[in-house]
Design goal:
ten-stranded antiparallel sheet, about 220 residues, Pnp Oxidase, Chain A, about 35% strand, 2 domains
Length: about 220
Amino acid sequence: MSTLPATERTRLGRLPDRGSFELTLIERILDEGLVCHVSWVHEGYPVTLPSAYVRVQDHVYLHGSVKNRTFAALAAGAPACLTVTLLDGLVLARSQFHHSANYRSVVLFGSCSPVTDVERKRAILAALCEHLVPGRSQASRAADDQELKATMLIGMPIREASAKCRSGPPLDAAEDLALEHWAGVLPVELGVGAPVADPALRAGSVLSPDVLRLYERGSWSLRR
């Protein structure tokens, strides 16, 4: 089992028993998430950018327009923090103080570097489609040369990171256990609704297997 080293930035100060540096857990959370938030300081101001992403081996990759000036700061190596959070349940306690959430999260520190090799860039963009919907890269057109030129692709290595998770029932104080208020967990799951066709869809087009498979499963957590 591979474990990342703890650093001053990744070491957990509060509730450290919920933390983990296990690489397999970190990768599993990253692979299940769909949106990350990446933060850095741009021209003296803090910036947080929500973004689709994909993990390929030991890097997390983001993409954006080459004309995006703040995104270009990341490509230039600005120190950054990337987070992914999966909400698994709302924890309802007898006391308002002990309400909480069941979750799995990853915090990743580092700097990004641009991907310049054309074929690698094309492969990672295809992997991003696969991350969103497995099988999608085979059910869509690949990026052409002009689209590749217009797209900035950057990767952050998974070297300085930690995971933090909470699961289980509420942790009410002993003196509150006799209260009549209902307490427990409301599970939360990202679901998949009925596909909505593009109004410009060609007549006779049918749902591709990748979309149909995901819709029939009904949950993003089961998309693989």
